[in-house]
Amino acid sequence: MASSRKVIELFYDVVSPYSWLGFEVMCRYRNVWNIDLKLRPALLGGIMQGSGNKPPGLVPNKFLYMTTDLHRLAQYFQVPISPPADPFEAMFEKGSLSAMRFVAAVQEREVGGDKQVEQVSRELWMRIWSQDKDITQPASLSEAAMKAGLSACEVEELLKLSTSKEIKDKLKRSTQEALDHRAFGFPLAVCHVNGKAEVFFGSDRFELIAHCIGEKWMGPQPAAAKL
């Protein structure tokens, strides 16, 4: 008899390149491991403020290391990360509040899965962390969403919804839930195993996640590993 599927919640923000790595790997494994992956868009700025943490981009030596580290990780995980020309502006001056509210709106309206949430999130990461494009303006969000397969009418509705109190509260709740799991950064994977929440931070804990849920880590490209 097959064991029951383990629920893994993945808290993320598209302003975070490390979240993109964790997101892509977990999406690759969602049909390989016996898991039910729950995508949890949240706000990294709220996590930093709520936990008292300081972003690595604000610590000079961490920022220099991050630049080199992301280049290596992009190659290893095969995710097309190319930092924007001005990472400080993209991450801290512009931020991702409007983008994450938009993703939350997509999630609120999507029925029967989270394919749209996955695709819209990916397109937003592509814009900020691969193409050096804006993710704050309505036109930018529209372009990303339509590239993800949404219609112009759907996008117009979602843009309106994203500014509503309903969605603002939804994003706040998700961020608070991550803080309740003692989050201090993203990505944050919460594995629910035998009635207990096991929390993993970062994009370098996949072997431990696999061990925790009784699965096998087959590297960043499990489909290729199985051939």
UniProtKB/TrEMBL annotation:
Its EC number is 2.5.1.18. One of its GO terms (cellular component) is peroxisome. Gene3D superfamilies: Glutaredoxin. The keyword Transferase applies. GO terms for molecular function: glutathione peroxidase activity; glutathione transferase activity. Pfam families: DSBA. The keyword Transferase applies. It is an enzyme of class 2 (transferase). The active site is at residue 16. It catalyses: RX + glutathione = an S-substituted glutathione + a halide anion + H(+). One of its GO terms (biological process) is glutathione metabolic process. Keywords: Transferase. Residues 7-211 form the DSBA-like thioredoxin domain. Belongs to the GST superfamily. Kappa family. This is Glutathione S-transferase kappa. It comes from Oncorhynchus kisutch (Coho salmon). The lineage of its organism: Eukaryota, Metazoa, Chordata, Craniata, Vertebrata.
